[in-house]
Amino acid sequence: MEIDTHGTRVAPFHLVLEGETSLQVAERTLTLRAGDVVLFTGGSPHLFTTPGTGPLRGVVTTPGRSFTTARIDTAEGENGDKLELLCGHYTFRPGAGAILFRSLPEAVHVSLTQDGQGSQGDEIVRLLSSLIRLEAQNDGLGSAAVLSALCNALLAMVLRTATATGTVSEAVVWTAASDEDIAGVIEAIIREPGSDWSLARLAKMTQLSRATLIRRFARSTGMTVGSFIMYARLMAAAEFLTETNLTVSKIAASVGYQSESTFSRAFRLELGLTPARFRKAHKSAA
Which of 222, 221, 255 is nearest to 236 (CA)? Predict the structure, then answer.
């Protein structure tokens, strides 16, 4: 089953509910088992393959009240193997959501049953699978909202569980930094993006040398301290621009920029729009 490239601001995901499959993306091939999740933050095209010598079969889609289901009508494998996937996508806004997904690896692969989750992970996957199956079969009033909430919970678990091991790219997901000192730095910056987060201050906060802080931050997040601070500030700025009537100048100061021009340049380079045009576009779309 081949999945084409998705559009902008769309992040497809796949959760293996039952069985085993191979996923090919770019030049990498992953073996996925029940409980594995792959999130594509850039919407890359990818291909699922399963063992067997039978003929290729097309995907049959069935429109429903809340969503369309898709299936491949094929017999079970020679050993009675069965593959069941939950496939969907997240649509995110051009502001903080776009910055968040752009800061993550192109493809994030985690195992909710193996990456330190143990029996609790198995139970979570079984419960999530059961709820998803029930809502998909019901497809009644409110099913779309319920499935949306379940998928949001799935995203939270993926970001919490994600590690460098098993990802398609070699980058690390900063939302799941396992280093307690670095996790504390990330939390502090997210909480107060406008503060003066100098290396000296962060080193003192963690009781690490600057060199050690830089090395461990890069190892835990896949980016530099400066890059992360920029992402955090721009995400906060995007929220201010869409949720408040503060002037661009005040927003720039509140997220730690010394001048409006410097802030506007950084914002435009990351999102392709000046803060003023971004705010206008958001209000027009609302």
Answer: 255
**What is the rounded distance in angstroms from the CA atom of residue 72 to the CA atom of residue 79?**
18
The edge-to-edge listing of strands for the beta sheet with 28-33 is: 2-3, 46-49, 20-25, 28-33
Q: pLDDT tens, 70-100?
A: 665 554 444 556 777 778 888 776 677 777 7
CA distances from 88 to 1, 67, 132, 168 (A): 14, 11, 12, 19
183 within 8 A of 149, measured Cβ to Cβ: no
189 exposure class (CB count in 10 Å sphere: 0-12, 13-18, 19+): buried
| Domains defined along the chain, listed by start | 2-173 (2.60.120), 177-285 (1.10.10.60)
For residue 165, the model assigns a pLDDT of 42
Buried b (16+ CB within 10 A) or exposed e, 33-44: ebbbbbbbbbbb
**Given CA atoms 174, 175, 179, 184 in this order, what sign does their dihedral have?**
positive
